[in-house]
């Protein structure tokens, strides 16, 4: 019983020591530790907030960059579509132009064919007419020099001056007459019967004596007007070898 009392007494003493009021120094130390803990927690929170703000800013920045890139891509797509449309329009324009060119070329070929056919038909008609009138023309060309052969004198310059043809046209006249008769008023083509300076066919169709050089030049001056004048007649002769 005594031992039990002693044990209880010792336990009570221990309890008293444990519940002894905390000294001021210990309390101050614990407050300091608590302050540091609180400060650490506040700093941790602030760091977390700042980090989140920075991270959010980066995210927003990247988001804006992505949006800008998307806008640029859309603008490029718009430009590409516009370019494709222009190319399509140009292709249509080129195709229409090519169609028009082909159409004009075809019309040109048709006109050339028609012109060639007309020229060929005219040649054939002239040949046929010359053949049909060959005998009569030859007889006329043989008899006419004997019956009405004018006195031929002077040079080609004299004949040109007497014909009234402007001197500016003499070069063209000389070009045709030289090729047709060599300036021989009595020249006669034995094949066709053409005669005179301008080789009129049929012989004697122009006014005046067929072998009168001045009358022949006057008649030729009127004849070449169907070509627009002497220059046109020379151009036609160079292309067709006749006029």
- Annotation, overall tally of beta strands: 0
What is the radius of gyration computed over CA atoms, rounded to a whole number of angstroms?
Answer: 62 Å
How would you sum up the global shape? rod-shaped
pLDDT average, as an integer? 78
Order of helices and strands: HHHHHHH
Considering DSSP H and I runs of 4 or more, what fraction of the residues is helical?
A: over 70%
Please state roughly what percent of the residues sit in beta strands, choosing from under 5%, 5-15%, 15-25%, 25-35%, 35-45% or over 45%. under 5%
Specify the structural class. mainly alpha
Termini separation comes to: 172 Å
**DSSP helical segment count:** 7
**Low-pLDDT sequence parts:** 136-149
SSE topology:
Elements: H1 2-18, H2 24-132, H3 134-147, H4 156-163, H5 170-180, H6 213-223, H7 230-240
Written description of the protein model:
It is a single chain. With 243 residues, the chain is mainly α. It contains seven helices and no strands. Helix 4 crosses helix 6 and helix 5 (170-180) packs parallel to helix 7. The longest helix has 109 residues, at 24-132.
């Amino acid at each position: 019983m005594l031992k039990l009392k002693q044990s209880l007494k010792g336990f009570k003493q221990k309890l008293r020591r444990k519940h002894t009021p905390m000294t001021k120094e210990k309390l101050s130390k614990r407050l300091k530790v608590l302050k540091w803990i609180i400060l650490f927690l506040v700093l941790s929170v602030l760091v977390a907030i700042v980090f989140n703000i920075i991270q959010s800013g980066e995210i927003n920045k990247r988001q804006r960059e992505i949006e800008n890139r998307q806008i640029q891509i859309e603008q490029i797509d718009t430009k590409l579509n516009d370019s494709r449309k222009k190319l399509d329009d140009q292709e249509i324009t080129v195709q229409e132009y090519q169609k028009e060119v082909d159409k004009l070329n075809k019309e040109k070929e048709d006109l050339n064919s028609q012109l060639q056919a007309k020229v060929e038909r005219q040649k054939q008609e002239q040949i046929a007419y010359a053949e049909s009138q060959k005998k009569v023309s030859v007889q006329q060309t043989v008899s006419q020099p004997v019956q009405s052969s004018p006195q031929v004198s002077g040079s080609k310059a004299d004949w040109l001056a007497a014909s009234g043809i402007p001197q500016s046209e003499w070069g063209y006249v000389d070009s045709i007459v030289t090729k047709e008769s060599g300036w021989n008023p009595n020249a006669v083509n034995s094949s066709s019967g053409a005669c005179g300076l301008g080789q009129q066919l049929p012989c004697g169709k122009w006014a005046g004596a067929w072998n009168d050089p001045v009358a022949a030049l006057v008649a030729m001056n009127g004849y070449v007007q169907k070509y627009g004048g002497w220059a046109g007649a020379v151009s036609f002769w160079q292309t067709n070898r006749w006029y």
